[in-house]
Amino acid sequence: IDNADGAINITISGGKAPYAIVWDREIPATGTTSLTYEEIGRNLLAVNRLTAGRYRLRITSSIVACENTDAITFTKFYTLSPVETLQLLEGPFLSKSLCIGAPGTLQIKIFDRDSDAFTFYYNGTIVSAAPLGNDNYELTIEAPVDTAILGIINEAGCGISVPVVTGVGTPDFTYTATSLENTGLISANDDLTFTNTSEELYTKMRWDFGDGSDLLEITAENEATTDIEHRYKTPGTFQVSLRFYNVLGCYKEVSQEIRVGKGYLVIFPSAFTPNNDGINDIFEAKYTGITAFTFEIFDMWGNQLYVKTADSLPIPSGWGWNGKYPSRKNYSFKSFRYLFTATTHDGLQIKTSGEATLLR
């Protein structure tokens, strides 16, 4: 739509008045590479009622006795673009059902200064639209596709096209932690690493760790890594969700349940067999969430048989009791007691004690 309502205003500085001012309109070239111009005004500081196009301004100073015409002549080009009276102000906003590929609705806000009746096309087919007031319309889409073009045509036949993309990649993720690798359980205050394992495209991903912490949003443009770290401060069961969004806000989501125990874990076997066959020959604990420990073995009468202290962790396996007296003779009874005193990551002192069996 080309309305003759454009205008150009100028001020002149430098040179010497009076000035020779010439305004020209460029004639579009058809079948030739040379440009031609049509004069539209002379000695004017403003021109108006202009249509879209390219305009040339030439100003010549009244300075004489100068053979260099470039020094006394100023030339400038102006381009006026056509004003589209039909404009998309907001949207499209898709209903949840439409986002997942089912029939649904979308809402848009449009404005046209010259028209108040529109025809809407979705994927080349006319669709019904209900005015909601304040230039808002709700369109009913019965046959959605992943990628379509929404066409909006006004009474004068002018129109705009808007892409409507409902397709969203399917998210997926895994998680791991040191405590999980060592014991099969997750401890509080242990760092969990979540990894986006999906190779499908998204505009934005959103992590919800299910513990009331802030949602984490990452765009495809600024994503530095697929690995995200999170720490649960208290035990509990948490629902972790990962969403993939597309450019129109449609999303798909996947969730996994995470069970987090207390901030430390110490597990001792109920028996061991120190017969030098390379299997279960050492009595020691699996642990996580601790920074130091002292481990003691006693006979059933309270006599200490073995002690091991570790001031920093981790230490190599094989640090436990081998089933012998301090004299290196084999322990001659089946039952014994143990005491494990440790310091957690939180600085707490914990004790684990019990009775176990030695089998030869």
Topology (SSEs and partners):
Layout: E1 6-9, E2 20-27, E3 36-42, E4 46-50, E5 53-60, H1 69-72, E6 73-80, E7 86-94, H2 96-99, E8 104-112, E9 118-122, E10 125-126, E11 129-133, E12 136-141, E13 147-154, E14 159-165, E15 173-177, H3 178-183, E16 186-187, E17 191-196, E18 204-208, E19 216-219, E20 227-231, E21 236-245, E22 251-261, E23 265-267, E24 271-272, E25 286-288, E26 290-298, E27 304-310, E28 335-344, E29 349-358
Parallel strand pairs: 16-22, 24-29
Antiparallel strand pairs: 1-4, 2-3, 2-5, 5-6, 7-8, 8-12, 9-10, 9-13, 11-12, 13-14, 15-17, 17-20, 18-19, 18-21, 21-22, 23-25, 26-27, 26-28, 28-29
Overall description:
It contains three helices and 29 strands. With 360 residues, the chain is mainly beta. The protein has a five-stranded mixed sheet. Strands 24-29-28-26-27 form a five-stranded mixed sheet, with no helix packed on it. A four-stranded antiparallel sheet has the order 3-2-5-6. The longest helix has 6 residues, at 178-183. The radius of gyration is 39 Å and the shape is elongated. The chain starts with 5 loop residues before the first strand and ends with a strand. 17% of the residues are buried. The mean pLDDT is 88.
